[in-house]
Amino acid sequence: MAGVELSLEGKVALITGGSRGIGAATVRLFTAAGARVAFSYRVATDEARTLVDECGALAGEPGRCVAIQQELSTPKEGRTLVSKTVDAFGRLDCLVVNHGIWGAESAPIAKMSEAQWSRTMGVIWTASSGWCRRRSGRCSGRVAGLNRIPQDTTAHRCIAPRLGIALRRDTSC
């Protein structure tokens, strides 16, 4: 990251879907930039534990990074994740929305069953309403969306922009 400075010293961040891939890289980046970081995962327990240990060593402070196992397919589950983060660190300054699923039966959007579509969109977007509505004096900041929308023209041109705009209009904790 030559030429890029990022200081998150004293900030608390929550990164959804943080145990692998882009999410894990974001957890490492935020920890290296000085943030205390909570991240969610659903099933990747070993990866989550390894990342917590790695980030604690990187920051020289065990406990600076915590993993929270949490399903994220309902608004209530989104609120629960925010509450667990606030319980761990006392507040929340930044939320990075990175979680998502693309079912085992991978299919272009036009060929998805209604059940597969509902599950995919539920996990990616529905929990968002939970944390966007979870407001208290211990919550501040903005939401950044990094959701992994599949490379499908319909999703990129029609769905993601509309949902992204809707989320950006109401993202303060």
Mind sketching the topology for me?
Elements (H helix, E strand, L loop, with lengths): L11 E4 L5 H12 L3 E6 L3 H15 L5 E5 L5 H15 L2 E6 L16 H20 L5 E7 L7 H17 L4
Parallel strand pairs: 1-2, 1-4, 2-3, 4-5
Give an overview of the whole structure.
There is one protein chain. This protein is an alpha/beta fold and 173 residues long. Helices cover 46% and strands 16% of the residues. It has helices spanning 21-32, 45-59, 75-89, 114-133, 153-169; strands at residues 12-15, 36-41, 65-69, 92-97, 139-145. It has a five-stranded parallel sheet, sandwiched between helices. Strand 1 (12-15), helix 1 (21-32) and strand 2 (36-41) form a beta-alpha-beta unit.
